Amino acid sequence: MGLHGWWSEFGQTVEAADDLVSVAARELAAAIDGSIPGVTVTGFKECATTGHTAVGFEVEVERPQDLAHPIRATEPVAVVFAAQGGQPRVLALRDDFPDTPHQNWTPQGAPCSLCIDDRPWSEAKLTYRPADLIRRIQLWLAKAARGELHDTAQPPDPLFFISQLAIIVPRSALLPATEPVELIGFIRPDNPALIITRVVADTDPRRNGLPGFVVVALRAQPQSMTRLRHAPVTLAALNAELLQAGIDLDGEIKTRLKAWAGIANDSVRRLSSRIAIVVTFPVTAPDSTITDDVRAFISLEAAGQIGVEWGLLLLANSKAAGVAGADNVFVRAVPEGTPSTDDIKIEPAQVHLAFDRELAATVADQATPDRRRAVLVGGGALGSQIGINLAREGRFSWTVADNDYLLPHNMARHALLADEIGAPKALALARQMGWLLNESFTAVAGDVTRPDAELVKEFGEAEVIIDASASVAVSRYLADLGDAHGRRLCVFFNPAGTAVVLLAESADRSITLRNLEAQYHRLVQTDPALDDHLRAEPGVRYSGSCRALTNRIPATNAALLSALGARGLVEALKGDEAAVRIWKVADTGAVQFIEQRGAPAHRATLGDWTIVYDDDLLAELGRLRDGRLPHETGGVLLGIADMSRKSIHVVHALPEPEDSRGSAEGFERGVVGLRTAVSRAVESSLHQLSYVGEWHSHPRKSSPLPSAIDLAQIAWLGGELEHEGLPGLMAIAADDGVFAFVMPRPRSRAS
To answer: Which of 254, 292, 328, 587 is the most exposed, fewest CB within 10 Å of its CB?
Structure first.
């Protein structure tokens, strides 16, 4: 076993640990000499040029009988301390040390660098002790011998060789393709070491004046893959390394350079761009799963100039070659010339995959991205945050519909930023969500209740329709939209911004948003936890218009409730049932969850009117009847009357007033407290509920058919409600859950 030549060439020998300049090196030597068995110091080195200090020692390794990697019983190791501090570097000094997982890249000719601690130094230094460093080295060598090095799929952390450049590459650039994916590079003034690339069309004005990069994406084969152990700084050195991984880099680039030669716009653009060589190394984990480790190398010269230096191309005009974006025309050299240099400089770069749907889904712990087509109606404070949050999780292919514009007061709660002020909300939100996922989404800036052909098409193709408009009219319109088949969900804040409400239709749409609106209002009327839930506070005027008011809701509440609503949408879509769900936030930040499952709804046509009621209303009537048997009882009905569609959703039955008189033979409803109770219900529903009729029960063993007295009362009721434009409605409850809804016969009108 020989020592790596680096050890003899590094610095000058120091005879004693006490003579070392580095305090950390002296502490390590003292720890080894003190009490760590199986470790022996072999020497000390200091480099006057760099100020680095190295401590050499031998480590006895606990090895199994069958070695996964040829780790020796005793391995020479050096720990290098930088003069300016920082994380110590651990080098294996054996000249034939094996290639294993969990090694850092090193410069050409340097020893193998062991990644014994993948924590950032800012964290690792908090618990750093010399004895712990030695134990980590011993453990690393023992695990390497057994083939148990953890996190083999994790890209090595380059502690010894640090790349000063990073590049963000879209996933599409790494996929096999006949034509190379062309990217435009953005170099931020505040971070010049980062290249942000995007796939940009030839006509996109963002190309103008920006440096260009053309990607050469290569992939090593798992069965013949050899890990890239060193960080080459020339194309020749990189080619030599990649040949061991089964990749002929020179051949790949030469083929492309020759194909790109010519005067076409594509050729000029490609050869005027720098080359970004992106190599994917499949790393095989112990369970045989394969994870990609991606590395990049950026040429310092333009592709055309490299072709000239290799003798493959000729510069056909007088413009300076190698300047990104210049209109240099390169043509094939026939015959090919002799390469003028083999020293084409490259710079290694860290690779970050651009954020996209796949990465978003993975980070959000989804097995696969959710690509269902969704229409988001409403791009306001709630809609924008829901859309952005769900896009960040890789969910849905979006269409955003909103006919409003982003105004300054929206900045208090909106997900968009001030640079979008004045833009149509739909367009700005769809644009931001699309940029987030590197996709293109649709925006429709129009009145949802009067959709144009484009929006009609989007509704028809949507699998999910999300109403975040905070508009009752829009919600009802979407519920009735017959040409659409997607499941509908409605989400909104209460006026005070202390709760978010989700109405989720059943998957088969047998329970619609209209039905759930009625059931939501019944829940508000009956659950004490929702007292003052719909209390309206005075708004804030944001312009001179008397209607220009916005609610007083802090951004923190809006953000928290929006996140709860977005999560609730996702969870609701996992099941088929309908539900009303409310998340209520206390001043302390505690969240109370209230849920009511959707009740099956029923429809009855009485004259020109459609009466809708549900099983929970019938159960409510049944409980009120049973509570007074054998006497009859009754009260008033509250409901949602939609005059435009001549429909009444019966929502809630109030119990009998205290001055009512009931017996086994009849019932006479009282009036004490009734007006107050009805007014309270109307106000607490923001005037969505109103008085729509009466109900009463029949005694045991009686049918729900109206008696003569009932018929007279129905006629009276119709006359009373006629001036309200309502028909008057009576519900009769009888045995075994049997009910009847009765309306007066419409009066004939003289012609």
So the answer is: 587
